[in-house]
Amino acid sequence: MSEQSHPEIREAVRKLCAGFPGEYWRALDRERTYPAAFVKTLTEAGFLSVLIPEEYGGSGLGLSAATAVLEEIHRSGCNGGACHAQMYTMGTVLKHGSQAQKEAWLPKIASGEIRLQAFGVTEPTAGTDTTRISTFARREGDKYVVNGQKIWISRAEHSDLMVLLVRTTAREDAARPADGMSVLLVDMRTAVGNGLTIRPIRTMLNHATTELFFDNLEVPVENLVGEEGKGFRYILDGMNAERILIASECIGDGRFFIDRSSAYAKERSVFGRAIGENQGVQFPIARNYVQLSAAALAVDHAAALYDAGKPCGTEANMAKMLASEASWAAADTCIQTHGGFGFAEEYDIERKFRETRLYQVAPISTNLILSHVGTHVLGMPKSF
Ligand SMILES: Cc1cc2nc3c(=O)[nH]c(=O)nc-3n(C[C@H](O)[C@H](O)[C@H](O)COP(=O)(O)OP(=O)(O)OC[C@H]3O[C@@H](n4cnc5c(N)ncnc54)[C@H](O)[C@@H]3O)c2cc1C
Question: Lower CB density within 10 Å: C or N end of the chain?
Answer without folding.
Answer: C
